[in-house]
Amino acid sequence: MAYLESLIQKCNSLSHIKQLQVHFITTGQLLLSPSRTKLLELCAVSPFGDLSYATHLFRHIQNPSTNDWNAVVRGLAAGPEPTRAILWYGTMSRQSCRVDALTCSFALKACARMLARSEAMQIHSQVVRFGFYADALLMTTLLDVYAKSGDLDSAEKVFDEMDVRDIASWNALIAGLAQGSRPSEAIELFNGMRVEGWKPNEITVLGALSACSQLGALKEGEKVHGYIMGEKLDMNVQVCNAVIDMYAKCGFANKAYTVFKNMCRRSIVTWNTMIMAFALHGDGYKALELFEQMGGAGVHPDAVSYLGALCACNHAGLVDDGVRLFDSMAGSGLTPNVKHYGSVVDLLGRAGRLKEAYDIVSSMPMTPDEVLWQTLLGASKTYGNVEMAEIASRKLVEMGSNSCGDFVLLSNVYAAHERWKDVDRVRTAMKDRDVKKIPGFSYIEVDGVIHKFVNGDQSHFNWREIYAKLDEIKFRTKAYGYVAETNFVLHDIGQEEKENALCYHSEKLAVAFGLISTAEGTPIQVIKNLRICGDCHVVIKIISKIYNREIVVRDRARFHRFTEGLCSCKDYW
DNA sequence: GCTCTGTCTA
Q1: What is the reported pLDDT for A483?
Q2: Alphabetically, which GO biological process terms does the record hold (predicted)?
Q3: Are A178 and A215 in contact (CB under 8 A)?
Q4: Which of A78-87, A299-308, A500-509 is least confident?
Q5: CB burial class (10 A; 0-12, 13-18, 19+) of residue A346?
Q6: A342 Cβ within 7 A of any nucleic strand B atom
């Protein structure tokens, strides 16, 4: 027996496995349970294994044990078609073979990869029926599936009902909340676990930092960074990468760069994160400089590095550098993907080179995605190109896109040309199609507390004062010569109401709150989930001038730094 | 004896 075990351990290729299998068959040992399971596992999960061969081996076993099944389910769950693991799990549970906690764990792992919530629910009910609910590892896997598939309520419920938790349970929920648009709760949970005496590890802080990045929560982010230093978690490269990202997304590219410089070991992700950080802040040259430096440091730029550098060119208006970069990809052995194409189309589009942008779209080797057509539509709007806008819109409709922004852009193009009939047609189409409107919201941190505003929000404890401030802003900006561009508003309402609809956008509410709740001269920073609206961009520029404040707005794409009536994006976004 | 949690992407 021992010699068989050692033979199996020496296997390092599929042909070894096949030789062993022949040996087992000829000596009649394929029936011996422990060795054949080992062989099966080797086939199913080892790096040199082969899934189809594993299932082939499995079919030659007359009475497969639970462990035999587990080997296959585990292998399938990690393979290219996780659905098959779920199917095998179903077959297994219908047969007489006993399903154990590991089987459920592997099947749930497959669900996590497929984001298969309803399948996970079925396995969940079996887990309860089989009495595995006390298994902390299994319940953590379950929690993670719910969180990843967007059902945070169920994830929380599983967490709450667990009698025994380990650090991974906390981590799974914190990461789930952070990634699932409930970042404030992720931070609360992170602080809560420390109160309960838990010691966050590398993985915990990754989740917490990701939440801080999304919220632009600098104060919390600094606390997490302090914890990382105290616990020496900064030895971990991934943790440092997340710290860089956090500082960059909280508006402090220089702090991010300090962390970057102090790292003794850097991964390619470190470089990519820092390049993206400069891009986000419109520091095109710094991003390109870093991109050049990485080669010298022995790190070859990958597809993400190129995307970051291209993105930096976009935000800094470095059109020729960007095009050159894009063209140089092939020489580095990299094939541009749809995002690289999207980026270069954006680059040309912003520069008004719509024809070239369109030629690239027509000649690209893969199908353009929605985002790409939206990019072209946005550029068409900026340059008032009706034909191009119509082409892009038609493509978007064909692709089943139903997003409000696409219709608004097209309508704006028509409105700019005073083609009111076409404007009406688009509005009617919007009504008929029940378009999706992602609700816009903005965050602002004041004294370490995050305040969230949605459009027309009246739920803030201070809303009356905020609205009074907005009235004052309206008055003072008008006196300064501002005229509302109501063409950003689509509803069939009167001029004054249109102005009001613009006036209470979430980013304006957040800025107004910043003005009344921070000392004069203090910079104000706002985070918005969508792109900043054109009217808000105009108004905030004026606010920065007449109130003499630096105002920073991070929108979906980049940072806008407003000072003295100007924006760092040079109105080019 | 074997599971669970994870940074960067127009």
Answers
A1: 83
A2: RNA modification
A3: no
A4: A500-509
A5: buried
A6: yes
Q: Which of A283, A336, A352, A270 is nearest to A311 (CA)?
A: A283
Out of A385-394, A413-422, A456-465, least confident range: A413-422
Query: What pLDDT is attached to residue A522?
Result: 93
For the CA atoms of chain A, what is the radius of gyration? 28
Residue A439 neighbours by CB under 8 Å, 6+ apart: A454, A455
H or E element that contains A260: helix A253-262
What is the enclosing helix (H) or strand (E) of A505? none
- Give the pLDDT band (50/70/90) at residue A106: very high
Comparison of pLDDT for A151 and A402, the residue scoring more: A151
Instruction: Please tell me whether residue A79 adopts helix, strand or coil conformation.
Output: coil
Contacts of A4 (CB under 8 A, 6+ apart): A29, A32, A35
Residue nearest to nucleotide B4 (CA to C1'): A137
How far is residue A144's CA from residue A117's CA, in Å, rounded to a whole number? 11
Q: Report if CB A442 to strand B is under 7 Å.
A: no
SS3 A398: helix
Nucleic chain B contacts, protein chain A, residues 101-130, CB cut-off 7 A: 101-102, 105, 109, 112
Strand partners for A515: none
Q: DSSP character for A445? A: E
CB neighbours (10 Å) of residue A91? 12
Q: Which nucleotides of B are covered by protein (CB under 7 A)?
A: 1-10
CA atoms within 13 A on the CB side of A537: 18
- The Cα–Cα gap between A148 and A357 comes to 36
